[in-house]
Amino acid sequence: METITGAGARRAVLAAQGFGETRPVGPVSRRHLGRLIERLRLLQLDSVNVAVRAHYMPAFSRLGAYPRGLLDGAAWAHSARQPRLLVEYWAHEACLLPVRDWPLLHSGAKREGWWRHYRELAEREPGLIEDVLAAVKEVGPVGAGTLEEMLGRTPSGPRAGSWWNRSDIKRTCEYLFGTGQLTTGTRVNFQRLYDLPERVLPPEVLAAPPIDADEAARGLVANSAAALGVATEPELRDYYRLGPHTCRDAIRELVDAGQLEPVEVRGWNRAGYRHPGARMPRKITTRALLCPFDPLIWERARTERIFDFRYRIEIYTPAERREHGYYVFPFLLDDALVGRVDLKADRVNRVLRVPGAFAEPGEAVPIAKVAAELADELRLMASWLELDDVVVGERGDLIAPLARALATRPANSSI
Predict the structure, then answer these.
(1) Which pairs with CB-CB distance under 8 Å and at least 24 residues apart come from 18-22?
(2) pLDDT over threshold 80, residue 1
(3) Rounded (10°) CA dihedral 23, 25, 29, 35
(4) What H or E segment, with its residue span, contains residue 392?
(5) pLDDT value for 58
(6) CA distances from 313 to 39, 299, 316 (A)
(7) Cα–Cα distance for residue pair 6/379, rounded to 1 Å
(8) Does residue 246 register a pLDDT over 70?
(9) Which has the closest alpha carbon to 384: 94, 8, 61, 25?
(10) Best exposed site among 25, 115, 187, 387 by fewest CB in 10 Å?
(11) What is the pLDDT of residues 68-78, one digit of tens each?
(12) Of 239, 241, 227, 231, whose CA–CA distance to 273 is shortest?
């Protein structure tokens, strides 16, 4: 078994996640986005929009300022000239994934998710299932609220429609989404509009022969390994939220087939596995703001082990107990996470607000350099979000150096 250093593994991880290449020079194209999607395999969806929705940010972190319409088109539009690249399903969490991976997720390799709790409703009211499918076929893509009106089942009460008081129509839609009988046709203001898979997925994907669950598990673990570069078994499992036995069996079979390599990583207390195609650059030169749901950092124990960076999202923490802020982006500079930045897009006043910025203790990178690189990245992000300026707050030891760095560049200077 080959032994690699922790620093080498970290560079392999960053390269696998798309940080081993320079950003495109000139406009970012659909081809750039397609290559990135093939690398990452998953873009997590999340409803928080305090800065920017989570699925847009990983592409910005790696490609720079790109037209968000490129991703919208890849996920929620289809034409003969530009076929749909992505489909929604529960993978790591609710995610966008390449359309060709749809059969892998519906093979039986992945455990049923939370929607299994709605099966009782489906069995109790089979007629409702039929009515919802017929209505979606007639008018889809369509939201649950419209379906409630069509079927005469509009809920009432102060909490109607909330997560904890979903209507039977919404529960039925989510059950059918989880079982693959419905998918997302498009989204409007981030609301999921349901449609039939045959109107969303390419014919060749729907016509593909069923995949054996064991074969699909190997495919999903191989995808995870390629996206992660070097990973432990729990991390390979977590990427698609597979079951432990399913993942371990798949790993063993991939190792036997030479499609996964066991490695020992110095400083890791678990066995590692490396994808045979993983690169280990001698140096990583990059900078990026990472949203809390970026696949590089979404597994917090892995982030701490690889980067010595303990990260917790504080959205659900009372304000007075938050250490770094409400929606904090780690800042990657070369091969280290060197800071944390609390961000808010103030769309009314057209500014990107930075209530707090914190340098990571013990980092060898001079704080002036961190501030200068961060200032440039914040200017780029503000421009990408069609905001006019970056406005800093008062919290954190990086705020004052960041304010000075921002002051050296006019708000509308080229980036």
Answers:
(1) 18/62, 19/62, 19/284, 19/286, 19/288, 19/296, 19/332, 20/279, 20/281, 20/284, 20/286, 22/285
(2) yes
(3) -40
(4) strand 389-395
(5) 98
(6) 25, 12, 8
(7) 33
(8) yes
(9) 61
(10) 25
(11) 999 999 999 88
(12) 231
**pLDDT bucket at 413, cuts 50 / 70 / 90:** very low
Closest by CA position to 183, among listed 151, 205, 212: 205
Which pLDDT band holds residue 148 (cuts at 50, 70, 90)? very high
- 380 by DSSP, 3-state: which? helix
Max distance between CA atoms of the chain, in angstroms, equals 66
Partners of 273 in the beta sheet?
Answer: 231, 262
Preceding amide of 141 cis, omega within 30: yes
In the three-class reduction of DSSP (H, G, I as helix; E, B as strand; rest coil), residue 355 is classed as: strand
For helices 168-178 and 126-139, the axis angle rounded to 10 degrees is 80
Tokens (6 digits) for 267: 């400083």
The residues pairing with 330 across neighbouring beta strands, listed in sequence order, are 340
Q: Is 11 helix (H, G, I), strand (E, B) or coil?
A: helix
Residue 378 and residue 388 in contact, taking contact as beta carbons nearer than 8 Å: no
- Per-residue pLDDT, averaged over 335-361, amounts to 97
By DSSP bridging, strand 183-188 and strand 230-231 are unpaired
